[in-house]
Specification:
Elements: E1 26-30, E2 34-40, E3 48-49, E4 52-53, H1 55-77, E5 85-95, E6 104-115, E7 118-127, E8 130-141
Antiparallel strand pairs: 1-2, 2-6, 3-4, 5-8, 6-7, 7-8
Length: 144
C-alpha cells in the first residue's frame, strides 16, 4: 500500500491538539523506531513570550511529536481514527538552550520500549547545530 509523502500531510489530521496549541508544523520522518517533526517558532504563537519560546512548550513539542507518530500510525497504517494519549512521566529533562522567533526546531523521538498501551521514548530537540532539550517520556494511551 502506498503511503502519502510526509510533507503533504496536514499535521492537524494527526494530532488531537488544535490551534493555538499546536507546536509542530510538519512530520519529517516516520518509522517504527523513530519519528521526527519540524516546528518554526512564530512571533504570534501562544507559547512565545518576548521573542522566546516558553520552556514549557518544549515538553509539549516532544509530546506532540509522539502524538504525530501515533496519529500517522493510526491513520495511514491501521486506517483508524486519532487515539488520545497523555504524558505519564517525564524524566531526565534537560533544557540546554532557548528557542527564538524564527528558529526551526527538529524534534526526534526514538522508541526505547513499547508495552501494551505505554510507550517510552527518548526525545531530542535541535535547532541548527544546537541541542535545545532532551528528555525521556512515558506516553500512555487512553483506552477507547
Amino acid at each position: 500500500m502506498n503511503q502519502p509523502e510526509l510533507e503533504s500531510i496536514d499535521i492537524h489530521e494527526l494530532l488531537p491538539q488544535q490551534e493555538p496549541f499546536v507546536l509542530i508544523d510538519q512530520l519529517c520522518h516516520y518509522d517504527e523506531q523513530q519519528t521526527a517533526t519540524r516546528f518554526t517558532v512564530r512571533d504570534d504563537h501562544l507559547m512565545v513570550d518576548d521573542g522566546r519560546l516558553m520552556t514549557c512548550a518544549l515538553a509539549e513539542n516532544m509530546a506532540q511529536t509522539c502524538a504525530a507518530r501515533l496519529g500517522y500510525y493510526n491513520k495511514y497504517i491501521l486506517k483508524e481514527g486519532i487515539q488520545i494519549g497523555f504524558i505519564g512521566d517525564i524524566k531526565n529533562m534537560a533544557i540546554l538552550d532557548t528557542a527564538y522567533v524564527g528558529d526551526t526546531l527538529l524534534t526526534t523521538i526514538t522508541v526505547t520500549m513499547q508495552l501494551m498501551d505505554v510507550t517510552l521514548v527518548h526525545a531530542t530537540i535541535v535547532c541548527g547545530e544546537r541541542t535545545i532539550a532532551t528528555a525521556d517520556l512515558k506516553i500512555a494511551l487512553l483506552n477507547n
